[in-house]
Design brief:
Layout lengths: L45 E14 L2 E12 L9 E6 L4 E11 L5 E6 L4 E4 L5 E4 L2 E6 L7 E11 L7 E3 L5 E13 L5 E5 L6 E5 L2 E11 L16 E5 L2 E4 L2 E4 L3 H12 L7 H11 L5 H15 L1 E2 L1 E3 L10 H7 L1 E2 L1 H14 L5 E5 L19 E7 L4 E4 L19 E6 L2 E6 L9 E10 L5 E9 L2 H10 L3 H11 L7 E10 L2 E10 L5 E3 L2 E4 L21 E2 L4 E10 L4 E5 L4 E5 L2 E10 L4 E10 L3 E2 L4 H15 L3 E5 L2
Parallel strand pairs: 1-11, 7-19, 18-20, 26-33
Antiparallel strand pairs: 1-2, 2-9, 3-8, 4-5, 4-9, 6-8, 10-15, 11-14, 12-15, 13-14, 16-17, 21-22, 21-24, 22-23, 24-25, 26-27, 27-29, 28-29, 30-31, 31-39, 32-38, 33-37, 34-39, 35-36, 36-37
């Protein structure tokens, strides 16, 4: 399946395709649901009864892959196995011999699908202006379980960067028998990388070629823990060779340096503006003193003048549109906009590097020791003397030099004068993602209230509230009431405030006819804040196996001032608390100003690291439970005697 994130950066790798046995060759018992071993049903939504993939690499850029699989679906959570989607391109990769057969629990065939039954559509999204990639798709509607799906097809490909890989099992899927073959020339520089598995191939030489065969049997289902990432859990193997050919252009992938040189050559004729336009750019910036301020000015110019549009046509999946094209048309995809920004900087003698990256929240980083195409996005790296600045060129709102949770904490391949170099992007921090707020609550004697809330968002929160400001009022209300755990108001007013100095402001005005949680006689019980800073807990686990991932580290604070009604006073003020764990802290303080008849609550929640090691899970779970209890403490007021 092709990757679509902020930018649809096409990578010519096929879905994990596959094999040699025909339907009649498989033992009949594999079609019977009753023959599945009990051990393979535990935690399983589906069972791979049989799978065989044969990948024959004929030459750099040319391969044939035969696929044959038999999967029994046990319940509705496994329904994805009844879908067959095959991406193709008429010029460079073709799918043939397609059959999908459906069998009931007793192994009786009840349906057969061919290519003619499949939907043929464009493999693009709403942001893609043009693409020559297409897909074939069909879905079988399941009436009862268990049911078995058999798939066979063959792929011929004449363009790729690497040899893709083998994903052995999905979430809550067991494997009865599965194998993967790679047949490749002995001089191809074939290599592979194991992830979450230690299995080794059986290697069989055959003249100038060798066959590598991996095989697994009776592998129990893995139930992914909440907050875990697939790439840290499920076994898979990546395949690569030293040489490739992409859309007719040969290249060397034996090292990150050599692949970077290939990309550099691909970009060589598209990375400059005309002499006249360069002179205009220099005139625009000639009063700006420092290189960094010039870059900041030009980045703002890019954001205000250009728009993001994805174009994935032929070699354009990797080669940017010329900088002159973007300058004239005022649009481009991630490659084109990053290349254009580089050309703007080049015009004022500021060097920069095209940076290829995997833009996916908590996505798998590229491996420094294993050159392989795991990328789907392009940003720009600007190496100033005092620091290195990274620019996200597809965003019209991102602050200069700030990355987001799609591109922080990654390994990016920068394309330098000396070729490719894999480097680490900046690590995210709590201070970069701040939610700061002030709330003023005026209580009335009947338990109602008027509430004013000012929110100031930085980093991810700035992006969040800029985006929310463009939504409809009903959507704004639903989002804020859910995310902040705000009590349902009688009236709701959302005001989008200024966006200055990389801080987005939002104001909320809320009215309640009943704001108190409990009213008993002359007493009223309140939550002493307008909303909760953190509303998430995690389940208790005896032993966590995998690391827990949040989307980003953060810092959240709120100062809440509560005006008590005339004639009321505080009976019970919650106790101040300071809670800590290895990667965070929560502090809350309460003050009663009797002279003003006000309660002031100051709260702060900090998560310093978005990845929590499995060994710290129990500590985190206990901490988050304690935070939830602390935020549930009540302020009790009473009518004065």
């Amino acid at each position: 399946m092709f990757k679509k994130f902020k930018c649809f950066f096409f990578i010519a790798t096929a879905c994990f395709l596959t094999v040699n046995a025909s339907a009649q060759d498989l033992p009949k018992q594999l079609y019977l649901a009753s023959t599945i071993p009990d051990s393979l049903k535990e935690d399983a939504n589906s069972v791979v009864r049989y799978s065989d993939i044969i990948k024959t690499v004929k030459s750099p850029g040319r391969e044939n892959v035969k696929y044959h699989t038999l999967v029994t679906i046990l319940n509705e959570k496994g329904d994805g196995e009844a879908v067959l989607r095959l991406d193709y391109n008429k010029k460079f990769y073709n799918v043939s011999g397609i059959e999908m057969r459906v069998f009931d629990a007793n192994g009786v065939q009840i349906k057969k699908y061919h290519k003619s039954d499949m939907y043929d559509g464009a493999a693009s999204d709403d942001e893609t202006l043009v693409s020559d990639d297409r897909f074939l798709g069909v879905k079988h509607t399941i009436a009862s379980y268990p049911i078995t799906i058999e798939k066979e097809y063959e792929l011929d490909e004449t363009s790729y960067l690497d040899l893709s890989g083998w994903e052995m099992q999905d979430d809550q899927q067991s494997v009865q028998s599965s194998s993967y073959h790679v047949i490749i020339d002995n001089n191809a520089g074939f290599r592979y990388l194991n992830k979450n598995t230690n299995i080794k191939p059986q290697v069989t030489p055959d003249g100038e070629k060798s066959e590598y065969k991996w095989e697994i049997k009776n592998v129990k289902a893995i139930k992914k823990e909440d907050g875990a990432e697939d790439w840290r859990v499920f076994p898979h193997i990546y395949f690569a060779a030293n040489n490739f050919e992409f859309y007719g252009i040969p290249g060397d992938f034996s090292s990150w340096k050599s692949f970077g040189n290939w990309q550099k050559a691909l970009n060589a004729d598209v990375c400059s503006l005309t002499p006249q336009r360069e002179a205009e750019i220099r005139k625009m910036t000639d009063t700006i003193k420092t290189d960094k301020e010039k870059a900041k000015f030009l980045y703002k110019y890019l954001q205000q003048s250009m728009r993001y549009v994805s174009v994935q046509l032929g070699i354009g999946g990797l080669k940017p549109f010329p900088a002159t094209f973007v300058d004239q048309k005022k649009y481009g995809d991630c490659k084109a906009l990053s290349n254009y920004m580089s050309a703007l900087l080049k015009a004022v003698n500021i060097p920069s590097y095209f940076a290829i990256i995997n833009a996916e929240p908590n996505g798998e980083p590229a491996d420094f020791s294993f050159p392989f195409d795991s990328f789907n996005h392009v940003i720009l790296c600007v190496p100033f003397k005092s620091d290195t600045t990274w620019l996200e060129c597809t965003s019209s709102i991102r602050a200069f030099g700030e990355l987001d949770n799609y591109t922080e904490n990654r390994a990016a391949l920068i394309v330098t004068e000396d070729g490719g170099k894999l480097v680490s992007t900046p690590k995210s921090s709590a201070g970069k993602n701040q939610f700061n707020s002030e709330a003023h609550i005026v209580l009335d004697a009947d338990g109602g209230a008027k509430t004013q809330i000012k929110i100031m968002g930085i980093g991810e929160y700035r992006d969040m509230y800029i985006g929310l400001s463009a939504e409809k009022l009903d959507d704004q209300k639903e989002s804020l009431l859910r995310d902040l755990n705000i009590k349902q108001p009688l009236s709701f007013d959302f005001i989008s405030g200024k966006d200055a100095n990389n801080i987005k402001e939002v104001d909320l005005n809320l009215e309640y006819d009943k704001f108190c949680d409990i009213k008993s006689g002359d007493k009223m019980f309140y939550r002493p804040m307008a909303f909760t800073l953190w509303d998430g807990t995690v389940p208790i686990l005896e032993k966590r196996k995998t690391d827990f991932y949040f989307d980003f580290p953060r810092q959240k604070s709120c100062v809440t001032t509560i005006d008590l009604p005339a004639g009321f006073e505080v009976e019970t003020l919650p106790v101040n608390q300071s809670l800590k764990f290895t990667y965070g802290n929560y502090d809350v303080k309460y003050v009663y100003d009797a002279a003003k008849n006000q309660v002031i609550t100051t709260a702060k929640f900090v998560l310093t690291n978005h990845v929590i090691p499995a060994a710290k899970y129990t500590e985190m779970q206990e901490y988050l439970d304690a935070v939830a209890k602390a935020q549930n403490k009540k302020l009790v007021i009473r009518r004065k005697a």
